[in-house]
Amino acid sequence: MVLNLTERWGKNLTRVFCTLKIEKMTTKLYVGSLSYDTTEDSLKDLFSQAGTVSSASIIIDKFSGRSKGFGFVEMSTEEEAKKAIETLNDKELDGRKIVVDEAKPMEKKPFRNENRGGGGGYDDKRY
């Protein structure tokens, strides 16, 4: 949440006094370096050591149908999420050391034009 305190003078004149940014920890966690053999159930079982798991999901590649090697776990409270990060980061699961961190919002990617055909570089005019 961002709070701006401003004072307005006339049509387009504004002075900003201060900006206060309040960040709240989310209960959604990123889990990386997962083995391709890891299941959502095994992920839930591991994270239940830190508290109540609201949901667990592993991201699957839409073309191959195979795990992308990362997923997300949502804990029921912020305290449980912090505990999961502290206790489970660098812990071994299915033969791999996993990475546990607070999930960050997905960044918007710039538009990518898939039409790569060219016009040949000719002018509109023909001689």
Largest sheet: 4 strands, antiparallel
Structural class: alpha+beta
Mean pLDDT: 83
Radius of gyration: 24 Å
Count of alpha and pi helical runs? 2
Helix content range: 10-25%
Instruction: Tell me the name of the CATH homologous superfamily of the domain at 28-102.
Output: RRM (RNA recognition motif) domain
Number-wise, the strands total 8
CATH topology of the domain at 28-102: Alpha-Beta Plaits
Summarize the structure.
With 127 residues, the chain is of the alpha+beta class.
Account of the 3D structure:
It contains two helices and eight strands. By secondary structure, it is an alpha+beta fold. The protein has a domain at 28-102: 2-Layer Sandwich (Alpha-Beta Plaits), CATH 3.30.70. A four-stranded antiparallel β-sheet has the order 4-5-3-8. It has a two-stranded antiparallel sheet with strand order 1-2. It has a two-stranded antiparallel ribbon with strand order 6-7. A hairpin with a 3-residue loop joins strand 1 and strand 2 (13-21). The longest helix has 11 residues, at 78-88. The N and C termini lie far apart (61 Å).
What labels describe this entry?
two-stranded antiparallel ribbon, Alpha-Beta Plaits, globular, single chain, alpha+beta, 4-stranded antiparallel beta sheet, 127 residues, 2 helices
